[in-house]
Structures are given as C-alpha cells and as structure tokens.
Amino acid sequence: MLRDSPNSSVQLDSYLGVFRYGRRAIELVWSTDQRLTVALAVLTLTAGVLPAGIAYVGKLIVDSVVAAIAVSSAGGAPDYAGVMWFVAIEGLLVAGMAATQRGIGYCQTLLRVLLSQSVNTLILEKALTLELAQFEDSEFYDKLNRARQEASSRPLSLVTRTFNLLQHGISLASYATLLLQFSGWAVLVLIAAGLPAFIAETYFSGERFRMFRHRSAERRKLLYLEMVLAREDHAKEIKLFQLGTELLRRYKKIFQALFEDERRLTRRQDGWGLVLGLISNAAFYGAYAWIAVATIQGTISLGQMTMYLVVFKQGQSSVSAMLGAIGGLYEDNLYLSNLYEYLEQPTLAWAGASAHGPEPSAGVVFEHVSFTYPGASRPAVRDLSLTLTPGQSVGVVGRNGSGKTTLIKLLAGLYPVDEGRILYEGRNLEDWDAELLRKRIGIIFQDFNRYQLEVGENIGVGDEPRLHDAAGWAEAAQLGQAANFIEKLPEGYHTQLGRWFHQGQELSGGEWQRIALSRAFMRQGAEILVLDEPTAAMDAETEADVFEHFQSLTQAKIVVLISHRFSTVRQADLIVVMDQGQIIERGSHEELVALGGQYARLFELQARGYR
C-alpha cells in the first residue's frame, strides 16, 4: 500500500518544480514573433476540434448509407444527394485538417529558426557580462555547453507541446462527449489505459536528463578532440608528432562510453514501452469487442459502432499524446533548467561610475595588492606595491609564472583584487566606470587574438568605435611597422586573414605580431599602453627596435613592457623583477646590474648567448 510520506512529497515537489520554466519559455517564444505564435495557437486549437467533427460526419455517412440501402430494398428511391452531401462535408473537413497541419508545420519551422537565434543571442549577451574568472572555470564551461547544446530548441518544443496538450485536450473532450452516449465506463477505460506508459516515459525522461548532466565533461572532451583533429592551427603538430592515431583512439573511447550509456537507457525505455503499449492495445480491443457486441444486440446502430470505434481509437491516441506532452513538458523544463542556470549565473557588479580621477598626474599605484586565482592553492600576486607615472616606461621581467601577466590583468580590472587596492589618477579602480577605464588602457597580450577578419579590421579592433576607419588602419599600421608587408598583400587592408574563409591569407608569426602592435596604436585615447611579450616570435634585435620605436611614440603615456629579453627592457626607465608574485628588485638597468641580484645573474646568462 502506498503512503503519503515526506519523501514522496519531496519527489512530487521536485517533479512539479521543473515546470517553473514553462512561463518563461512561453514569454520567450512570444517575444520572438507574436504573429507566428498566435497563428500557431489558432491552428493548434483548430486541429483539436476537427477530428471529432470528422468522426461524427463519418457516423452520419454510415447511417445514411444504411438508411439508403433499406429504402432501396423496400423498392423506394434512395437519398443519394444526402449521402454525397455528407461525403463532401467530410472531404472538406479532412482537407481542412491537412491544411491546418501544414500551417502548424510552417509556423513551427519558422519559429524554430528564429527562436534558436534568440536563445543563442541570450547566451552570447550573457557571456559579455561575465567575468574573466568565470571563463577560466571548468564547471562554468559545462554550464555553457549544456545551455548551448539543447536549450536553443527546448523553448519552442515546450510551447509546441503546450499547444499540443490543448489540441488533444479539446479533441479528447469532443471524443468523450460522443463516447458518453455509449458508456461513461468507456471514457474511464480510455483515460486509464494511457497512464502506465506516461509514468514510464516521465521516469525515463528524468533518467536521460541526469545522464546528460553527468556526462557534460565527456561531451566537452569529445568536442575538444574534434576541434584539435580538424583545425588547421593544430594540424602541423598533429602530423609532426604523429598524434592523430592516439587522439582518435581517445575520441572513439569517449564516444563508446557515451554510446553505451545511451544504449542501456534506450533498451530499458523501449522494453518498458513495449510492455506498457500492450496494455493500451488490450484496452482498445476490449472496448472493440464491447462495442461490437452492443451492435449485434441492436443497442447501437452500425454508424454509431463505426463512430465509437473511431472515437475510441483516436481518443486513445489523444490520451497518449496528452500524457506524452506532459512528459515532454517535464523533459523540456529539465533541459531549460540548463539554459536558465547559465543565464542566472551571478555577475560581479562593477559599481563604479567615475570618468576621471582627482589627481590626473598620479598615474597608477598598486598598494599592497594580493590576488589568488579561483581554485588555486597559492597567490599569483602577493603584497605588491608599485607606482607607474605618466611619461614613464616600465620593464617587467621574471620567470614564467612569476605574476607578470596577472599584474596587467589586475591593472585592466579583469579581476578584482583580494587584498589592497589599485589607484588610477588617485581613484580606486573599483570606483571607475569599467567601460571608460578600459578605453584608457591598451594591452596587447602574448596570446593576442588572430581574428579571421580582414587585415584592416584586425587592426581596427583595437578601438571598436573606429573599427571601419580605413585612414586609422593605415596610420596605426605605420606606427606598428606593419604597413610595408600589408601593402604587398593581394587586397591590401581588405585582404581576408586566416584559412577559415575563401581566399584567406595566413601571415607569419612576426607579421601577426606587427598587426597586434598596430592594434595597440589604434587606440588613440589610451593613456596606459602595455606590451605583454607580443613580440616573442621576433629576434632580439628586431624586438629591441620595435620597443624603442614604441617608446618614442608614447612619451607622454605610461608604457609597460613585459619581456624575457633583458636586452630589450634595459631601455625602460624603471625595471621591476618579479618572482613568485612579488617584486624582489626594482631600479634602472645599471642599478640592477650593480646590485648583483637575480636581474644581474639572468642578464649575464642571456648576454653569454650573444658572445
């Protein structure tokens, strides 16, 4: 005997709780295209009424045929016109039903395309509001991939199933009205026969969803391996190191594990579906026998028998469709939870609104700043204090992992500090308007983006409002020493870069780096310019020449140069040496060499290589 235990109450609440996304999905579909949504609703309701009408007219046809046969047998003139009239009406209703189904398909197809775009836009708009730390979190990527994989189709599926529920509900009400003329028990049998299959389908929908979430990381690995095996920027190493066979083996292994889970679940689901489907068939044929006996006994006419059989069969389909729609709504809501779980990701609100600081000449001041990356065991920057003044060039050196790039990310406000504070023009970074602050900072990282865009646009991205400013491209390219090779490209600044699109041109590492340098010069309003090893592919002499040229053009700005080559940063006004997130030495090149510390030792090691 089943008891209403607290546990079962929790399970019911959990089941009903997933439907909370239904209203939001309907609002999303409505906002996507109101006319298509209204048309889909009207057509769906029409499709719910027509089947009962077709069944009833079918009954009138059979009864009028039987009556005409009786009249003809008695020697009278049968009513052919009446029979043909009912046939014509049924033909029109069937044609209307076909047209309605076509209309529903048309609306669903267009809404699916529009809604997919709307949801993807929501996902991308949300991505623009998230912090850099969230993009470096593997759990966040699982949420993002779950949201993108199925959520784009689920809102329309939910709305479509809602309409289908209404459609079949109307149909069932119409069928029940007709079937009640025969027996109320027939209506109960009709409804009860579909319940076992509904319970099973709902259960397996939940199982499939749980499997989907559990395997998120494996599916992401699968997509990553596909990308590595099929992208041109990975192809040379894959071939050189003969990694293809090993990576493909891993790809197949992960796929096989995912497939085995799917196979086991599908086997169980189809097995139960077969057993429970037999129950529905038994109910139908039991009702069939019941109606047949009633016809033989003269309780109902032949036309009524035909109508009741059609009504029971189609009513059974409507019950099954309704329960399936409810189960589908449950499944859609489960998957929509992925979308809204992502869209409801908390964003670290940057509350500042200032556009200027009280001391424009104060530059940038780090005061006892400490920062640890989320999930890391040790700080990337520890108790760091540093002052950068306008007109000053600062070289930052240190081993890999010493905190050089983290220092720049904190300066740009890409991460909030854990301890201490950073001031710009005498005002805490957190009090600045984020957009205005970042317009005043130009940074080119070592791993700068190589956009699959035209040459000019690759430079123009350095200052988005002037993305299409051709004169600005040319000026920035001259300053970045890229103009000479750009002018030799097939279409100059309008040459497509990269191999992803038609007639794309690939550049050498050094040419890409000059494009990146030009990008830095594109940002005319920047008062802080940072080069974080973007010239690593250049030889030492060329890099030194580029940095010297860069400094000569930015004399009134704060310039930060990060490089492993001490022969380059020796030109800076101030050099800071970082180790394990701290500044361990600072001064000019001559002062640091005379100090005889880590800078002097590393400088001597590099200098030997050129002797």
Task: Provide structural commentary.
The structure is a single chain. The protein has 611 residues and is an alpha/beta fold. The longest helix has 53 residues, at 244-296. The radius of gyration is 36 Å and the shape is elongated. The protein has 23 helices and ten strands. Residues 1-18 have low confidence and may be disordered. Strand 4 (419-424) and strand 5 form a beta hairpin. The chain has a domain at 12-343: ABC transporter type 1, transmembrane domain (ABC transporter transmembrane region fold, Up-down Bundle), CATH 1.20.1560. The relative contact order is 0.08. The chain has a six-stranded mixed β-sheet with strand order 6-7-8-3-9-10, sandwiched between helices. The protein has a four-stranded antiparallel β-sheet with strand order 2-1-4-5, with helices on one face.
**Shape label:** elongated
What gyration radius follows from the Cα positions, in whole Å? 36 Å
Instruction: Please state roughly what percent of the residues sit in beta strands, choosing from under 5%, 5-15%, 15-25%, 25-35%, 35-45% or over 45%.
Output: 5-15%
Secondary structure tally, helices:
23
